[in-house]
Specification:
- By secondary structure, this protein is mainly α.
- β1 and β2 form a beta hairpin.
- The chain is elongated and about 105 Å long.
């Protein structure tokens, strides 16, 4: 597939695809007879995986290391696994922090809701209907 089609299907821009090739995140594609990039459909799986690494906060330098190891083949499986396990540990720690922060937010929101409910309840108990005052005749 051509770069435009890959961009459309992957969600990346053509510029980003070229940049990823240049820095080594994507393998250099074959070229067709006219010299245009010709990508195999399997590149979509790799791009999706890179997107997941990126969205989980893996730095580009680690993504580059993983990509370089991947290019070297099965002999680097153990090193790639170790890299992913270390990243998974960081992601789990980050998720735990987010969950702790979410609990604090939930407690704060609940506190506001309780306060509003107390105000409404107390306000209804203390309020008496307004009556029109009678004026005295002079």
């Amino acid at each position: 597939m051509k770069i435009g089609e890959l961009a459309k299907r992957s969600g990346l821009t053509a510029y980003t695809i070229r940049y990823y090739e240049q820095i080594g995140l994507l393998p250099v594609p074959d070229k067709d007879a006219s010299g245009q990039r010709d990508y195999d459909a399997s590149i979509l799986t790799w791009i999706e995986f890179l997107g997941r690494l990126k969205s989980t906060g893996m730095p580009i330098r680690e993504m580059l290391r993983y990509a370089a190891l991947r290019q070297q083949g099965p002999a680097t499986d153990a090193e790639r696994r170790a890299l992913l396990e270390a990243h998974r540990h960081k992601v789990r720690a980050y998720v735990a922090d987010l969950q702790a922060n979410l609990l604090v937010l939930d407690a704060k929101i609940s506190g506001y809701a309780d306060a509003e409910e107390r105000i409404e309840t107390n306000g209804q108990q203390q309020r008496k209907p307004l009556r029109a005052r009678r004026t005295r005749a002079l």
